[in-house]
Amino acid sequence: MIPRYSRPDMVAIWSPETKFRIWYEIEAHACDAQAELGVIPQANADAVWKAKDVDFDVARIDEIEAVTKHDVIAFLTHLADIIGNDEARFVHQGMTSSDVLDTCFNVQLARAADILIADVEGLLAALKRRAYEHKDTVRIGRSHGIHAEPTTMGLTFARFYAEMDRNLSRLRDARAEIATGAISGAVGTFANIDPAVEEHVCAKMGLVPEPISTQVIPRDRHAAFFATLGVVASSVENIATEIRHMQRTEVLEAEEFFSKGQKGSSAMPHKRNPVLTENLTGLARLVRGMVIPALENVTLWHERDISHSSVERNIGPDATITLDFALARLTGVIDKLVVYPNNMLANMNKFRGLVMSQRVLLALTQAGVSREDAYSLVQRNAMKVWEQGKDFKEELLADPDVCAALSPEAIEEKFDLGYHTKHVDTIFARVFGED
Amino acid sequence: MIPRYSRPDMVAIWSPETKFRIWYEIEAHACDAQAELGVIPQANADAVWKAKDVDFDVARIDEIEAVTKHDVIAFLTHLADIIGNDEARFVHQGMTSSDVLDTCFNVQLARAADILIADVEGLLAALKRRAYEHKDTVRIGRSHGIHAEPTTMGLTFARFYAEMDRNLSRLRDARAEIATGAISGAVGTFANIDPAVEEHVCAKMGLVPEPISTQVIPRDRHAAFFATLGVVASSVENIATEIRHMQRTEVLEAEEFFSKGQKGSSAMPHKRNPVLTENLTGLARLVRGMVIPALENVTLWHERDISHSSVERNIGPDATITLDFALARLTGVIDKLVVYPNNMLANMNKFRGLVMSQRVLLALTQAGVSREDAYSLVQRNAMKVWEQGKDFKEELLADPDVCAALSPEAIEEKFDLGYHTKHVDTIFARVFGED
Amino acid sequence: MIPRYSRPDMVAIWSPETKFRIWYEIEAHACDAQAELGVIPQANADAVWKAKDVDFDVARIDEIEAVTKHDVIAFLTHLADIIGNDEARFVHQGMTSSDVLDTCFNVQLARAADILIADVEGLLAALKRRAYEHKDTVRIGRSHGIHAEPTTMGLTFARFYAEMDRNLSRLRDARAEIATGAISGAVGTFANIDPAVEEHVCAKMGLVPEPISTQVIPRDRHAAFFATLGVVASSVENIATEIRHMQRTEVLEAEEFFSKGQKGSSAMPHKRNPVLTENLTGLARLVRGMVIPALENVTLWHERDISHSSVERNIGPDATITLDFALARLTGVIDKLVVYPNNMLANMNKFRGLVMSQRVLLALTQAGVSREDAYSLVQRNAMKVWEQGKDFKEELLADPDVCAALSPEAIEEKFDLGYHTKHVDTIFARVFGED
Amino acid sequence: MIPRYSRPDMVAIWSPETKFRIWYEIEAHACDAQAELGVIPQANADAVWKAKDVDFDVARIDEIEAVTKHDVIAFLTHLADIIGNDEARFVHQGMTSSDVLDTCFNVQLARAADILIADVEGLLAALKRRAYEHKDTVRIGRSHGIHAEPTTMGLTFARFYAEMDRNLSRLRDARAEIATGAISGAVGTFANIDPAVEEHVCAKMGLVPEPISTQVIPRDRHAAFFATLGVVASSVENIATEIRHMQRTEVLEAEEFFSKGQKGSSAMPHKRNPVLTENLTGLARLVRGMVIPALENVTLWHERDISHSSVERNIGPDATITLDFALARLTGVIDKLVVYPNNMLANMNKFRGLVMSQRVLLALTQAGVSREDAYSLVQRNAMKVWEQGKDFKEELLADPDVCAALSPEAIEEKFDLGYHTKHVDTIFARVFGED
After folding, report:
1. Which secondary structure element, helix H or strand E, spans residue A148, and what is its range?
2. Superkingdom of the source (chains A, B, C, D) (predicted)?
């Protein structure tokens, strides 16, 4: 994660301040539950809340950690300095560091997921708006990068909407995967702490108790979470690639928004680069690369080894911050994308009418012309378009053999764009609902 | 995929015979729908069903494909040979190859998912049985590969059960992800075919119509599917690794089942290798390696490029066949795993009672001894165990300073294994339900 | 690996016949060395060579393996059937299965590397030929998919040549990485066999003795090997992507060769799909996906675990067969690529002269016009081109303010393509040598 | 990259200060070459060196970039502020941003490689020292985690030495891969700048001119570089895993150094966790995860797209900093590893003499006992060891049938450890050279 590709709300989730705040809340709620169980005095539990509005001193905690070599102990020492050593002496009782660390990590991931979910919702709104705006903007559909049949720009936006809507579901599932907490002790047996503490803390922190943990929360959950981010990132790349293609000089069906004042825009109007979507392509690679380490993290030795930790200290922030940034950037790109309907028409007509050759071929055979003859008829006219730049429809209308099989109206009809757009409403209803 | 790591039911899904059967069904159902719409004659639709019980001649289709260079055309030619050229002439009308290929692929993936789901259910049954069998079999819990606190073998099985139960949910979700079909034409506009055909075919094939497709079904679905297989495979490795650890000579808490007759077993009883779980570790790597290509497949150019195809021709069969084999092999391993409770106790007592030192330390401080003094008391007795092989409890009972703080009963209590297993029932109830 | 993407020579390397032949040679050479050392009788060593021209019966070996559950023992049993039990009784003495398996695997990988090296050499020849053919074929260079400055098609071929030439070096290094053998016994100590045997066998098999092995040859070698294949595959994708871009309808600067008879080519001349290069893109993903499992294979427990084996049984053949096929396919594509120089010129002139605007801007400032004024002068003429389709040079020549700073000749010179191609020979000399 | 896993020298390479310093040097040397060519005045070239000892003001450059949205322009503006606008007006003439950015990136990577190479050299020294120290320290070799035959701890260190020595070669090759520079203009044609400038700058910066570049240096070089880091990281994990295994409670053949004062060490002497090597396992996953994005970066559109940039801004620092930290940490671990030869012997003798059963079996058959009888003899004595804890050698010596075939001396000889270590010197000579 680097500042250039970061947004503050997501970064804040991963700050030391946030982390210590979550640790504090876990410890304080655990004390409440312990007091309720009669394990520790109520007064001591109450005392912990004295720090409720205190800003923890990160630098001070770091200093202590430099000595103790233990982050949780450093924090607890600092907390004791605030609420008093005597009052603090039951804090963390019966817990292991992982109870705090793992539960905190999942709180952070859940909050990160909330932002990502909101990001996708924002992107969906933009995609929907642009889809309706360009519902009937005809452009050529392409398979293999080659002109196939007409479609509309609205359908392009709509399919990205549908894809991102699936990602929304996946993110919600992914959030549920990691929104669990565990306060179950050194090997998960609750030997030193009652399961009721876990239940209380989880309820307060918005988590579900992990049904069975060891020293740690099982990492298949995190693997599923990061794998989902990898899928979402790949969808970001998919959309970004479409736009990069549309913006290339020879296509020019759309451009990323380029503000008037932006340097070089008008002296070199042909040189507006799709740098945002290119950047998104790279960011997708980054997020995708974090999937494998997350999958490798699933295998831990016995009740835990700590190999996952260094991975997560990196990919926890990096994957969520990068994806958040990418989704927001993509939303901006979609929102302001400059679409060129005229260029779309011009491109479609590059080989004047040739994209309709398959319909004509089909019509001829349906009119009783043998497959071979039909093929030959289409071919001789198509080659005039291809080689001499003639207009396909005009050639057909002037070809007596074609006209013997098809009326001028029938020929005209084959070039009707409405033929290709007649089900757009149906598809929109499927994607956006029937309203 | 190689035969050594394959099972026949899963392999059969990916056979040419199955593929052509599915193609046939798609085409036949499409004809029914076309006839219902009045687009083609009912008689022609009916005629297609003449091939219902015919075994397609794969070699013949391959021969035709060698000439036409087109697999779907080769199949249709063969079909026409069977039902008659005239009867066959409306087959595939308005459809593109991808309508058949993509819908077929998803049928295959959905069936593959069904097998994988059944595999996991079988594995869950084995894990549950072994969990209850060893619910109270005490063994040492380990963090960092180092003895921590006691747990039970039943909890180990139970946590693998919980992990695989999550994988069951994930596989069901993954199945839903790819159980869609599309018959929407060259660029997904339904220009040449009514959406009703897609609806009919999908209903018959057990699929949901893809709300919006291009020439292909969007590949984020497949990415999510294969990513899920990667998570499941990683869980397989997680369980396999636990067993490999348990079987290593110095630990020997369990062994993969080794049949009496198996060569070398009794002349070299110490040399029984966990080759099945080692193999599972490798198979997990293979499945995991297929996640990235599946994620890269999401980005296709415009309405489709065919880059995804060669990837899927490989990972479609390979990932599902490998994971099916792995799950079945793991189920066998779990089912017949030879567990050595006595060795578990012996391991736990390797450093006679030392694993309880933390409890003693805590008890001393709770009894009012200062942290420093408590630490010192534990230390001097622990070192006698560590360096001279003494018994920790006996040393404590013989240490007057310890006995001044703790009664003999209190000391004895710290070595009570029941302390560690008291919540096993609670955890089992969470994992397996309250019955 | 599937037949569709396979070539016979590479497939043959991975056949059971080849494998058993290599095993046989290893065993026979080992016997020679053992006899030379006086460890086994010379007659027994000689007897092994009786099988020199015998075709091993793979089906029979499989039958035996089905009983013994051990592939090497099955082979040795079959060998003994051929040369006589008594004669065979010193075969494999002092060796472990891995001595044979690992050494064989490296022989196979080295041979596979030889084919890949020859593939790249063939590709280089094609690239070089096309580079010289199109050394002076001007086309527009593009950054971000947007027109930048002119370059030549020859430079494009030349840079792919340089890239593949680097891959040639990498493949040679990769071959050296895995061309080692080991006959060092159960844990690599040569306890039961003299190092001289390893030396003799390796010399005969074209390998270098592994300086220190355990039961296996260290897998960092294989990781480096497969990582190299991943790099080469990525270069294949790089070239494939360039061609896919060139073939897209709006660009049409080149096309994959499309034989006259190929269906649909002339009735739909606009619909020739770059299916070969799209396919190469997918194959690259496959090979790349095998890098991670190979890297994960490096970590084996102690003197070996067998987790690497299932991975290698797959990626050994799959990665080499796929890459061989891809390189050969790419060579064919390059060799026959249809290049359209006229379209290249037409594309370059799409925005009539605008690609030269930066040169004009620079020339104005060098002529003493202030940056702001120069910018403004270029801008007002550029916008006429962009918005009204005027010709940039003509507008400049007609702009008195421009002409006040630059002579007509100077303006003309800015549009001289020779300016951009003047160093092509220098670059070619760098890439192809000074001849 | 996070501070916790970073070392200052490597971090410094990636600081903005270093980057601007390198940019400056590139620009200054380019001016020299331009002046030498007569393209710009010598005085202007000389003026640039006025900034030679100036510390650039990163914050100021960032401010300018916030306005210009262009990092290189921001730097050049700042440079002009320092040396004077008039003096600076020929700086960067004929160059594009990528000339500076790409050349700088490769300088940084080459310097990073130098540190990594030094890291590996340091690690090699530690491994060699420990190898000789424990050349004759016998321990059991293990395949599949199961006792196989004796080996020595020195051989373990020696094989890690050999593996890391290969990594040293690979890193040197990787350094050579990326130690190139390019100053070739917008599409690599040198249209606006003479190749002599590139040659001069590269020579001064310790680089080789890239034979053919586009706007960028080809990314197959970087892919090969990062793939190599992935191999090295995997070797780090391999060594780390060996140590983690050795430290697990039941094995305890070695421990990471644990300073006397370290908390908990003596009160819980059994609870020293191999946290450093566990951490290395995670760091290896991180570096490995960066290989795939680097491979995906190879494919750029035409003469460049900028998708690689965001990837490299992350993995450039992250991969090198992480690997540097990992290598240094591993060196410390090896250097101070506490080895327990007595525990090695105790482990080897866990099943008293059974590891020799294969040698006895072989000796019996060589003494003329039939395979079946020999097997049966070994078996009945082995089972007494396995089930009743007897000593294998004593049982054999007491078995009249065994003694009928083998003399007591012959039996004793089978238990001679010297048999297994006799070639250690040979292997050491291979690994470390003949001296």
Report:
1. strand A146-152
2. Bacteria
Q: Which of residues 210-269 of C touch B (CB under 8 A)?
A: 244, 262-263
Q: In the structure, what pLDDT confidence band is assigned to residue B270 with cuts at 50, 70 and 90?
A: confident
Concatenating the DSSP letter of every residue in A58-72 gives HHHHHHHHHHHS-HH
CA-wise closest residue to D318 among A314, B338, A380, B178: A314
Region at C217 (left for phi over 0; alpha for psi -120 to 50; beta for the rest): beta
d(CA B276, CA B284): 12
As a whole number, the mean pLDDT across chain C is 95
Question: Do the domains A354-414 and A10-93 match in fold?
Answer: no
Per CATH, the number for C96-193+208-350 is 1.20.200.10
Is there a contact between B285 and C5 if contact means CB atoms under 8 Å apart? Answer: no
Q: Mean pLDDT score of chain A, rounded to an integer?
A: 95
- pLDDT band, very low/low/confident/very high, at C269 (cuts 50, 70, 90): confident
Bridge partners (DSSP) listed for residue D338: D255
Taking CB atoms and an 8 Å limit, are A191 and B228 in contact across chains? no
- Average pLDDT rounded to a whole number, residues D335-347: 97
CB within 8 Å of chain C, chain D residues 152-191: 155, 158-159, 162-163, 166-167, 170, 173, 177, 185-191
Token pair of C413 as six digits: 């010179």
Q: Would you say residue C189 has pLDDT above 70?
A: yes
| Mean pLDDT within A402-415 | 94
The single residue listed with the structure tokens 């960067």 is D92
Q: How far apart are CA A264 and CA C305, in angstroms?
A: 61
What is A10-93's CATH topology? Fumarase C; Chain B, domain 1 (1.10.275)
Task: Name the residues of A annotated as catalytic.
Answer: 144, 265
Predicted confidence at residue A362, as pLDDT, reads 85
CATH tag for D96-350+420-435 (out of 3.30.980.10, 1.10.760.10, 3.10.560.10, 1.20.200.10) = 1.20.200.10
ipTM reported for the complex, 2 dp: 0.96
Look at residue D228 in the predicted model and tell me its pLDDT: 98
pLDDT in tens, A349-398: 998 899 898 899 889 988 989 888 988 899 899 889 988 999 999 999 99
Q: What is the predicted pLDDT for the residue at D285? A: 98
Give the fold, CATH level 3, of B8-93.
Answer: Fumarase C; Chain B, domain 1 (1.10.275)
CATH superfamily of B96-346: Fumarase/aspartase (Central domain) (1.20.200.10)
Q: Which of B263-277, D77-91, D406-420 has the lowest mean pLDDT?
A: B263-277
pLDDT at B366: 86
Shortest CA gap A400–chain B (Å): 27
Name which CATH class applies to D1-93. mainly alpha
- Catalytic residue list contains B169: no
CA separation for the pair A246, A155 (Å, rounded): 15
Query: Would the CA dihedral through D167, D172, D173, D178 be positive or negative?
Result: positive
Task: Please check whether the domain covering C354-414 is classified as CATH 1.10.40.30.
Answer: yes
Contact C297, C222 (CB under 8 A): yes
CATH of the structural domain A96-345, one choice from 3.90.110.10, 1.20.200.10, 2.60.120.260, 1.10.287.40:
1.20.200.10
User: Which residue of D144, D213, D420 is in closest CB contact with C305?
Assistant: D144
D85, D93, D104, D183 from D32: Cα distances, Å: 18, 12, 18, 14
Angle at B145 between CA B143 and CA B147, to 5 degrees: 65
> Tokens 């051989």 sit at which residue?
D155
E strand or H helix that includes residue D146: strand D146-152
pLDDT value of residue C150: 96
Start-end of H helices in D37-152? 42-48, 58-68, 71-83, 97-133
Q: Output DSSP code: residue B416.
A: -
Task: Give the predicted TM-score (pTM) of the model.
Answer: 0.97
Task: Kindly list the domain boundaries of chain A, sorted by start residue.
Answer: 10-93, 96-345, 354-414
